[in-house]
Amino acid sequence: MPLVAGIDSSTQSVKLVVRDADTGRLVREGRAGHPDGTEVDPRAWLAALDEATGGALEGVAALAVAGQQHGMVALDEEGLVVRPALLWNDTRSAPDADDLVRELGGPQAWADAVGSVPVASFTVTKARWMARAEPGNAARTARILLPHDYLTWHLAGRPEEAVTDRGDASGTGYWSPITDGYRPDLLALALGHVPQVPRVAGPSEPAGHTAQGILLGPGTGDNMGAALGLGLQPGDVVVSLGTSGTAFAVSRTPARDARGLVAGFADATGHFLPLVCTLNAARVLSSAAGLLGVDLDAFAALALAAEPGAGGLALLPYLDGERTPNLPDARGSLHGITRTNLTPQNVARAAVEGMLGGLADAVDALVEVGVEPRRILLIGGAAANRAVGEVAATLFSVPVDVPPPGEYVADGAARQAAWALSGGMDAPAWPDAQAGATTRFEPALVPALRDAYAAARSALY
User: Fold this and answer.
1) 221-245, pLDDT tens digit by residue?
2) Exposed (0-12), middle (13-18) or buried (19+): which is 108, by Cβ within 10 Å?
3) What is the pTM of this model?
4) Which residues does residue 241 pair with via DSSP β-bridges, in sequence order?
5) How far apart are CA 207 and CA 362, in angstroms?
6) Start-to-end C-alpha separation, the chain
7) 222 belongs to the catalytic site
8) Residues 4, 21: contact at Cβ < 8 Å?
């Protein structure tokens, strides 16, 4: 049976899975770390990729890369890195986002143009920041790639034409899933000129071969990879709890949310992926656990020992600013403190509720653009914390499922590689891809809890 590989090049690390192309059976894995920070020399990703794949690609017939969205890799005429890549969580371009929105005519104009209203996360705003703050680097920039594009381009031997896919391109702010094409005028508006950008390949269209002859899929963004790895169906809403938090669902129609809450992305299959992103997710829990001086297991026990509502404490977890709502300069705050409720148990519970409260609002925003949830799928590193599923049930009105831990982004990339290898019309079904049982939490909605967080947020903005 042929083997395929999927690579997840995330903010914190690179993960590799090798699977049977026909059944999805896991054969082997690899991993390596990435440097911390909101800007990174993209060559560090290449070094980590070499470490994670060393010896692991033997017998692999095809591979694909899913990567963190939005990051701007600026290259010169020789294909050399102009400056460290600005990552999605770098908020220095927040004023540039405001300027771009105003210059095009407001949020509705952007929603109509590219399906999304750009905030600091989007590539187009980073291009404007570079043009404003580093005009020499902007002038040297002859090509802009996204993180997954950069890795695929290197794996393909740095061809003249780089390749991307609809999903990742839709997070740039200068490619439209509505018209299925680039908006070079928007890139020129941001950067001052139009650099070379990748060709947008079809969902299963090959993007070349490695020097070893391995077929390359076009790759995609990390959220699109997770959707493909999970095999999302209508009514499935994913809440992903990694460095950032996201809520997304597959749709057959593009979103155009002029409020800027829902990003109107494309998915990796030819459809659409309306998505809401928060900057703060898993690190809220690790930060609170550090404050309390406990590990994450003990932190979960503390949170579960408290009642819903945390005795009146409400944590707004904007530890790194926030993207949704768009508050890049905000900081976290703890509301409702009294002498009696300031306990380790309530602080732990408030941290979990605060992290999930923003994502419950994110799901509400998806509903407002036409998504009809029948269940919530909790994935990502923080989903494994045993307090998270139980607390989530108090914030959602539909069942909450926690599938077994897995590298769903890398799995989606591997599934795309198998699709490109087969040349079929649809991504292959993988009966052996998911090992382990899904844990279900029936809805136990506490409306007063949602009200408390709405009141805390309204006091802030």
Assistant:
1) 999 999 999 999 889 999 999 888 9
2) middle
3) 0.92
4) 245
5) 34
6) 57
7) yes
8) yes
